[in-house]
## 1
Amino acid sequence: MSAPRPQLDLFKGKQARDAGIEQTSATNSAWLALGIALLPVMARTRTSATGEEMRVWLTEHGLPAPKSPHAWGALTQHAVRCGIIRDTMRTERMRDVRSHARRTPVWEFINTWRNHG
């Protein structure tokens, strides 16, 4: 007898993602505000970055570790919703050894943010 096939439902998957982002955002709201405030500063130093590069830059420039590592994904999604970054539809390999060189999206800083802050 074969194992049951997993249920594949994009709509429910997006709902679960959004619920997780909402919960993580509530738990890390002050941290998210600090990260969002620093991203325009980062945007003046480059045109694009991976989430991993954002994490490294932000922590090097004073953003403390969040309560949950999931907050990094929430920060990225908030930056998209705020119009700070957009998906380039490209990927790069992550460089942190703990990430096992997996592929990660490359985000473009939207031009209007390079001149703020």
Note: The chain has a mean pLDDT of 92.
## 2
Amino acid sequence: MNQKRQKEVGIKKQRNYALDIEKLTFRRALMSKQAKTLTAQEIRRVLDYVATRKHSERNRAMLLTMYYAGLRVKECAALRYDDVVDAEGKIRAEIRLTPEQTKGSKAGTVFVSDKLRKELQVYVKSVPPNALTDKLVELQRKVSHYLQPILSHRFLNNLA
């Protein structure tokens, strides 16, 4: 009988240990503020979808700028050609964001990867600016904090 009791206690401890691990993992997931990102396969699906729609060059440039540089919708929409292109017409190695362009009203610097530089060069060639102060991507609506969740929701629904 003593062995049976010891076995039950051992099983109970294992269950409690498993529950404790589950609680810690679940709590950590709730506390985590890490943003969810798209996988390479999901990006390919989105790019395939974008290619079939109106304004595909603009949308591809916006999507890849946000993905590769980690920009928010508002920050991407606020970019101007002179933020991205230097006086010689080449894509800059880093993009400097002014406080007006960012969420927390704090200036920042975004480094441009080689992949993003190539994509932006293609976009700038296909959609040349009238002046360097023109917006990089011309949107049909003003991007507000009310519109951002709607855009994200529609975007994700179109993927499904």
Note: The first helix runs from residue 2 to 31.
## 3
Amino acid sequence: MPEAIAPVAAGSLGAGATTVDVVLHVNGTRHRLALDPRTTLLDALREHLHLTGTKKGCDHGQCGACTVVVNGRRINSCLTLAVMHSEDRVTTIEGLGTPADLHPMQAAFVKHDGYQCGYCTPGQICSAVAVLDEIKAGIPSHVSADLTAPPQMTAAELRERMSGNICRCGAYSNIIEAITEVAAGRQS
């Protein structure tokens, strides 16, 4: 696995401050960082690794713009410290696909116009990919009628699972159409 090292400017933490070594496996590349222990995963990704696809929206975990996938589970990267994820596998929007080779979810968002201004789109897409994995794994949600049966791929189920991702432009119905199309492709 390739390794990239991001330098930290000398004295950037102030007198007496310390850094901690954090190793993150981001989009298949191992990164060794020296970080202030208070650095969020979001800031490590954006400010230290220069992966700016993950957005800083509310910085309080309320909008979902910062959603990334860590070890197969979606999280709000603004609410977790980078040191808590040393040696974890992190997937950002940049790791899902490229403009020349889109991930199926990215292609479906384009096809169904599941974005308008685009600010929330990276978080929406990362969350949508993880949502399908949650349903496939049989993890129930708040609206799952039977907690012992496999969750059903309904619009209500998808809306509930995506409710932590806010789209101020209101592209929700298009987002559900995109997710439904990708889910149908996985089932066939």
Note: Residues 121-136 form the longest helix (16 residues).
## 4
Amino acid sequence: MITKKQASKDAVHFAFKLILAEDLRNEIGGKVTAVGLYADNVVVLQLPAEVPEPTEHEPLLVKSLGFLLCLQGPAGKYAASAELESDGARRPFMQSQTIILAPGKSVNMVGVLAPCGVASFGLKQVIVKLGDAILAASFEIRRELGVARPPPTTQVASRVATGIMAPDITKSKSTVSPFTAANQKVAPKKAR
């Protein structure tokens, strides 16, 4: 039988920091390049007022959303994976991989969802499984209302020009699950 004293003495403690950006790229030497960091892990989507609220069946597609997971803990090899939790559902977005932690050093895991489906606004969680430990960090996706519609810079709909894409569900039977990479293309609108 393990007492509380023994359990706390034998427990493995990890530290986990989440950083969000529009895009992330691994560099030589363990460095990570980040473009468009989101302060305080709050993603603010600037949308025209006429863009409807996203749903599970008609999510908004953000061009990309990068997740930098900085992990620290006792030296050793660990199986590590990550899931996104939104609206009570968990979806894997970083497959299991082996990481090696060294004393006093951190290991970076980078995941970029491009595009990233957003089915609702509000608080979300990144759940990291590291060995037998489960770690969590929160982030938020917000909508900024009343943004004037910018003129389209290409033939693609203005939702793409503002960084948001909507799948053309009239031509496709597949749906985009929130927080999963999708291979859907947005059809250009014809000039009127």
Note: The first helix runs from residue 4 to 10.
